[in-house]
Write a structure and sequence with these properties.
Elements lengths: L155 H8 L17 H8 L8 E2 L6 H6 L10 E2 L1
Amino acid sequence: MGDRNAGVLASAQGVRNIATAATVVGNDNVIDAASAIAVGETNVGTAATVVGDANSGVAASADGRINVATAATVVGDANSGVAASADGRINVATAATVVGDGNSGVTADADGSVNVVTAATAVFDGNQAISATAVGDTNIATAATVVGNANNGWRPVRMAASTSRRRPRWWVPTMVGLWRGRAVTRTLRRRRRWWGIVMLGCWPVRRGCAILRRPRRWWVMTM
């Protein structure tokens, strides 16, 4: 590694020359069309690997970022919608992306590290493979939120609806997990004076509703 074999072939370790056109890591090999370009990064004659990538002897583009033979890409590249392996380092087959990319509306597996099939979460969020917008800001399927949050699949609207089926028409259980004051105000505008609902963002409504099966006037529910 680091020898000055001007444009000749080297082994994988870059120590000695071998039978085919691979270049030495970090050498100063002058332009040689059969072996490498001026800076020794890409093998021109056979499109062999770029120095420092993880592709281990497969074809690469001139800039060393995209694998030509398999359309796989190197970790940290622009990574425009090609597939990634399980460890998120090398793209391999279809339109999924590598961990840490812009994550343009493609899906992720349960831990959010590798995108796989269709529009799901952004990388590293807590949404556990639930769908999100292209930028990973909003969970489309469940209206759960953002990249990096801890909302492991909150179900605000659906859960609220299921718990309110046996309540009188005017009783609107709160939107689970949505703590904004405006939402509270809207749900209370049509409430009777003695009926107060305090939303503190505590999403397990089932516990709160269990004590309300036979509501009384004097009850004030605190979730």
